[in-house]
């Protein structure tokens, strides 16, 4: 059935892939974005499609529209960007969630929240399962993002309980791929751009901290599958790739795949940088029959191809 779907943050990295996929599936899509970290270039190829609309709007302000579903992705996601104006980041997460939940309540739309593995903070449980409450510093430099997202989850749950809003809470783990912002400071984009330019590769700390990287196509498939799943399954659910690597291993892979002459250099570990992160995705497998299929090397090659194009 053709649906009308609102994607907040639709011009961002994940949002643009989501808009594209939903249009491919025959839906009508409205992207709502203030272009803080998003870019019109990410969606320019969709603008000719009569079933796509791009609206410039800030989610901290109310927005009125009639849609069947809302994917709430608006929020800067990289530490550099979300720490640039931490108060605005909190407003985007919290007021943005209130505005979108209020909209969903009024028009009886289903609404999915792009939450994050950051709700687990620097986790003391490994791998992370959805019933773990996390280990978050509420006053640290990452708190604007972590606590904003935690508050948004709480808002989603309370709108569901109090107002019967049909919600889905998805905890996204590190995702990478084409259309990542080349300067947003995230590790995959940083390392690839540095390698392609034969510049020093900046390892923060000793590189022994771990992350588990999910390729964007797998993530978007999981996101849509979750939105379309049964009413009663509201999450939170982890969506990510459980293959875990140290940051040093990632750097070595990127150098190998690009044939770069870059050297590794070490810089201090940022405050509250989580030491390990790996999703337990048993719940997603059971409830959604979803698991990622794209291995790190394959995804890195596609991402390297993209960055080669945009920085040459
Ligand atoms: P991104 O920065 O590329 O996209 C975010 C988009 O939201 C951008 O287009 C930006 O302009 C827009 N935006 C920011 N503030 C806004 C506001 N106040 N009003 C309207 N639009 C606003 O980041 P992304 O990687 O695509 O992340 C998308 C969502 O997924 C975010 O909510 C993020 O927290 C979540 N997430 C992403 C990852 C990841 O690894 N990429 C991991 C966990 C969670
Ligand atoms: N990182 C790094 N060098 C960089 C960028 C990031 O060593 O140039 C490290 C960072 O300290 C963290 C990991 O890579 O331990 C992932 O960082 P990213 O900002 O991509 O995501 P997050 O910390 O939010 O998972």
- Overall CATH class of one domain: Alpha Beta
Q: What gross morphology would you assign?
A: globular
CATH superfamily of one domain: NAD(P)-binding Rossmann-like Domain
Kindly estimate the percentage of residues that lie in beta strands according to DSSP.
Answer: 15-25%
Number of discrete helical segments: 9
Specify the structural class: alpha/beta
Descriptive notes:
The protein has 312 residues and is of the alpha/beta class. The protein has a domain at 4-175 and 214-240 and 279-293: 3-Layer(aba) Sandwich (Rossmann fold), CATH 3.40.50. The protein is built from nine helices and 13 strands. The strands form four sheets. It has a seven-stranded parallel sheet with strand order 3-2-1-4-5-6-11, with helices on both faces. Strands 7-10 form a two-stranded parallel ribbon. A two-stranded parallel sheet has the order 8-13. The longest helix is centred in the N-terminal third of the chain and has 22 residues, at 86-107. The protein is globular, with a radius of gyration of 19 Å. The chain starts with a strand and ends with a helix. The structure holds nicotinamide-adenine-dinucleotide and uridine-5'-diphosphate (UDP). Nicotinamide-adenine-dinucleotide (NAD) binds next to helix 1, helix 3 and strand 5.
Quick structural gist:
The chain has 312 residues and is of the alpha/beta class. It has helices at 13-24, 79-82, 86-107, 143-163, 187-196, 216-227, 247-258, 282-288, 296-311, and strands at residues 4-8, 28-33, 52-56, 69-72, 110-116, 166-172, 175-176, 201-204, 210-212, 214-215, 237-239, 244-246, 264-267.
